[in-house]
Design goal:
The chain has strands at about 5-10, 20-30, 35-45, 55-60, 65-75, 80-85, 90-100, 100-105, 115-120, 120-130, 145-155, 155-160, 180. With about 190 residues, the chain is mostly beta strands.
Length: about 190
């Protein structure tokens, strides 16, 4: 059984913000085929433009505002899924056959479960993705996961990820899918 630990996201150096002190993510893979992700953003939450929580619904272009993201690929494959989770409860799923090749899927069956908690100094978002809705292979395959965040604050937009490559933030770079998740054992 593996110990759970928080993973730090790093701000792209070209997009510094004073409103965010840290972003960490906790990722757990359940035997039942769920990927459970908790994002924890520490900062001046009142100056971060996160919107008001509402009923879950499909959104578009969520990445233009405060949005937490997960990129999920089966190990060794070029295809991947992009999930966008907004603190408003909006969500989006993209299916891509390779680097930025593909588009949004408008299908309620793909809807992740999203829960948001917020205080003056912290915003937490829990997202649960059903891997069997991505493909029959996803629940039992090794997965490469990229974690990222777009944060819109009073002082601008910042881009956070496990790894950054290049002068501009690019969450679709497969080298940034740096987290390897093996299928859980039945006793976990």
């Amino acid at each position: 059984m593996s110990a759970e630990h928080w993973i730090d996201l790093w701000c792209h150096p070209s997009t510094r913000t004073e409103m965010v002190r840290a972003i960490q993510v906790l990722v757990r893979r359940a035997v039942g085929g769920e990927l459970k992700i908790t994002y924890r953003l520490d900062g001046d939450i009142g100056r971060i433009r996160a919107g008001r929580p509402a009923a879950p619904r499909i959104g578009t272009e969520l990445w233009r505002h405060t949005c937490l993201e997960a990129f999920i690929a089966v190990e060794g494959q070029a295809s991947y899924h992009e999930f966008n989770f907004a603190p408003t409860g909006e969500w989006a799923v993209y299916v891509l056959s390779g680097y930025r090749i593909g588009g949004q899927v408008v299908d309620e069956a793909m809807r992740p479960e999203i829960a948001v908690r917020s205080t003056r100094d912290r915003l937490e978002l829990d997202a649960i993705v059903r891997l069997d809705r991505l493909s029959a292979m996803h629940p039992r395959a090794d997965l490469r996961v990229g974690l990222s965040a777009v944060i819109e604050a009073n002082d601008g937009i910042s881009y956070w990820a496990l790894r950054h490559f290049g002068d501009k933030a690019d969450f679709h770079n497969a080298d940034g899918f740096a987290l390897l998740l093996e299928p859980p054992c039945a006793d976990e």
